[in-house]
């Protein structure tokens, strides 16, 4: 559907933004639901972030997704924050309401929904999880797993201080594991999650010996380029169930789309195939 002059407007702010799949994803939903709207890529330099948001709000934008490197700047700029944004200390979704910026974070939601859809029988409470990585993405995964009721969350990161800082922020169930001990920490797991950039196209694969991992442990990776990362390929080969990372991107987009365009959109195979064919 070609947008009219009264089209509802939203978009994604990033720098760079040309590789973002969000315009394709939201564009597919706008088309599918016959909505008079547009979702645009908005390349904005870090120094211009605040001015750009204010200008776009003045131009009638209903909201934005925010991607690298703006998630922390968005957190600082918003007039109000939801619980998830506050815990993760980053905003990935802005909803404009009467000129005020409401900051949300839907990454934890996206991670949890991806696991639910990809492995409906998996239960967080059934045992410990091991999280590899302690960057921005890891914070959302920690929030999601704690909300789902994981009894123990082992965190291993190359730079141990970042894992320790996560444990300090989120407390209780988190246990810092030495990066060199990550293979041993696979014993007895109910979930293994990679949030490092290792395995991403152009990066080295994650170097992890899976010998101690129980064969029924669910393995997931937030990297989705390639869809089957070396970790997921190896896990599948030894019989472990796996969930790839694309669904996290698709599901995190749902709350923003609903807020801006008024329809709760569906994630299905047609959407996945369309996004993957980019
Ligand atoms: P994101 O926001 O996507 O999580 P990030 O904050 O840059 O990005 O975090 C990237 C993660 O990948 C970090 O956990 C990083 O480990 P460090 O904290 O030690 O930097 C991890 N990572 C990147 N390259 C790595 C490598 N070669 N070996 C081990 N971990 C690596």
Overview of the structural elements:
The chain is α/β, with parallel strands linked by helices. It folds into 2 domains: 127 residues, Leucine Dehydrogenase, chain A, domain 1 (Rossmann fold, 3-Layer(aba) Sandwich); 118 residues, NAD(P)-binding Rossmann-like Domain (Rossmann fold). The protein is 36% helix and 19% strand. The longest helix is centred in the middle third of the chain and has 13 residues. It is globular. 2'-monophosphoadenosine-5'-diphosphate binds next to α6.
Brief synopsis:
The protein has 278 residues and is of the alpha/beta class. The chain is 36% helix and 19% strand.
Q: How is the main sheet built?
A: 6 strands, mixed
Number of helices: 11
In CATH, the architecture of the largest domain is 3-Layer(aba) Sandwich
Terminal residue distance = 19 Å
| Overall tally of domains | 2
CATH class assignment of the largest domain: Alpha Beta
By CATH, the topology of the largest domain is Rossmann fold
Bound ligands, named by name, code or SMILES: 2'-monophosphoadenosine-5'-diphosphate
Low-confidence residue ranges: none
How helical, in percent, are the residues? 25-40%
What is the total tally of β strands? Answer: 12
The name of the CATH superfamily of the largest domain reads Leucine Dehydrogenase, chain A, domain 1
Shape: globular
């Amino acid at each position: 559907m070609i947008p009219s002059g009264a089209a509802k407007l939203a978009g994604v702010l990033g720098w760079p933004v040309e590789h973002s799949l969000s315009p394709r994803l939201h564009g597919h939903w706008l088309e599918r639901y016959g909505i008079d709207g547009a979702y645009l890529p908005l390349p904005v330099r870090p120094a211009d972030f605040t001015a750009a948001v204010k200008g776009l709000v003045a131009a009638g934008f209903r909201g934005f997704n925010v991607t690298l490197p703006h998630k922390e700047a968005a957190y600082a700029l918003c007039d109000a924050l939801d619980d998830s944004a506050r815990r993760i200390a980053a905003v990935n979704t802005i909803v404009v309401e009467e000129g005020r910026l409401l900051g949300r974070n839907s990454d934890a939601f996206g991670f949890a929904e991806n696991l639910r859809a990809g492995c409906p029988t998996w239960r967080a409470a059934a045992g410990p999880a091991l999280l590899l990585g302690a960057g921005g993405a890891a914070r959302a995964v920690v929030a999601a797993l704690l909300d789902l009721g994981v009894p123990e969350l082992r965190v291993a990161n190359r730079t141990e201080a970042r894992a320790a800082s996560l444990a300090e922020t989120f407390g209780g169930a988190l246990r810092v594991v030495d990066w060199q001990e990550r293979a041993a920490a696979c014993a007895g797991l109910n979930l293994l999650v990679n949030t490092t950039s290792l395995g991403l196209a152009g990066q080295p694969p994650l170097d992890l010996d899976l010998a101690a991992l129980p064969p029924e442990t669910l393995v997931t990776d937030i990297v989705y380029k390639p869809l089957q990362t070396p970790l997921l390929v190896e896990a599948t080969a030894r019989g472990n169930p796996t969930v790839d990372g694309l669904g996290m991107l698709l599901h995190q987009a749902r709350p923003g789309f609903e807020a801006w365009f008024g329809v709760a959109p569906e994630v299905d195979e047609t959407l996945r195939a369309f996004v993957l064919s980019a």
